[in-house]
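hiii, so i know i said id send this last week but things got crazy w the move. better late than never?? heres the sequnce for the chain we talked about at the cafe, plus the structure i predicted for it. fair warning i was half asleep when i ran it
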Amino acid sequence: YKNFSNSLLNVKTIKEEIIDWLSNKEIKLVINVPAEENDLEYFLRRKTVEFSVPLITNFNLLERFLRAIS
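okay and structure toks below
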């Protein structure tokens, strides 16, 4: 996403963008395997589930998913 490349957006702006993308069905799958827990990652996972978008949060599951689709 172009806004993330060279600038830091504030968390409120990022959260608004996430809600827009999910509600408009612009995101078909979310892969979020957190190295450490933070508020933004929790928000992303929670909103992903609220908008019924598939979510992968486990590295082993991600590995199997990638093998299955390749």
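btw The radius of gyration is 13 Å. thought thatd interest u
miss u guys!!
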